[in-house]
Amino acid sequence: MRLADFALERYFARWEFAVQHVLCASDVEGWPMGELLALADDEARAMWEGLSLGYTESTGHPLLRREISTLYESVEAEHVLVFAGAEEAIFCLMSTSLQEGNHVIVTWPGYQSLYEVARAAGATVSLHALREEDGWSLDVDRLVRSFRPETRMVVVNAPHNPTGMLPAEGEWRRLASECAAAGIRLVADEVYRFLEHDGSRTLPAGADIDERAVSIGVMSKSFAMAGLRIGWLATRDRAVLDRCARMKDYTTICSSAPSEVLALIGLRARERVLARSRSIVAANLAVLDDFFDRRSDAFTWVRPRGGSTGFPKLVPAGPAGSSADAFAARLVEETGVLLLPSTAFGSGDSHFRIGLGRTDLPEAIAKLDGALGPRA
Ligand SMILES: Cc1ncc(COP(=O)(O)O)c(C=O)c1O
Prior knowledge:
By secondary structure, the chain is α/β, with parallel strands linked by helices.
């Protein structure tokens, strides 16, 4: 299997730990370990203190699988398979479900592995472009028109990285039933689930609305624990889980024992954990509302509806120039603030991703503002 380079990860490998402000991160500020342990109930604390560092159950710790299943309405513990992050889950799912002759439709611009692994498995991929002029919305009619007889999978990331797209519930359910009627598996990348803005409701999970659909989840984003590297697949289709478990034997075999217990603690304390993430994101969105309002000479942006990223556009001939690559390069050099240009998504050179989850955002935005110079 030959995989093209993961452009975004290569960019982060160069910059993420070399700059002062990562203003383009998609995760939420990581939980301090001490504070997380303080949230443990008696059972989880005893598990943590008595933990022995042997191999763990390949499918995931039974208590963790049970806790993950409570994020869903109709998913039981045995419908959950734990992985090293959502990334491993995507790799195992795509590489075991697809082959030459299959067609897959994936929302775009987006997280590259969602379509790159499918391509490497031999499938033909159609990218379902979200359009800025439509407010980055999911166009279910257009998506359904791109179904082909050989379409096997429709992959939707919602809330969406990088645009913040979040479909209305009715549209989401309509897409799920169109997929079911055509015998196409819906794959819902829900790693930003529970980060809906402005009172928008959490969408029903893919795995709940269709028994063949697959939901992808992770501790990294809404739960602010990327360093655990714990993710999962949830589906009532046991054949999918069985195939993925067999592939996992060749990737990580089983999860890290300390991470499983810490993930269990975080999920059991999910109200506190999610409240913290939502409050960081809401405070940052208020800063960005003000900033983009004041700097409409340099940028336009469609306010994200969910998730922890947004995708502003450079105003041509504005003070930031019209190349996102060039602006990001100048900004990081002059101020130590990192943006992610849209070229990393293969999606032109006039947008950049901004992350809503880091607590240094106000400081980073002040530096970005300074680099633009005063408004003419
Ligand atoms: C849409 C989407 N899916 C999956 C992932 C992978 O998550 P993780 O790195 O925690 O495995 C990411 C990470 O940015 C993402 O944005």
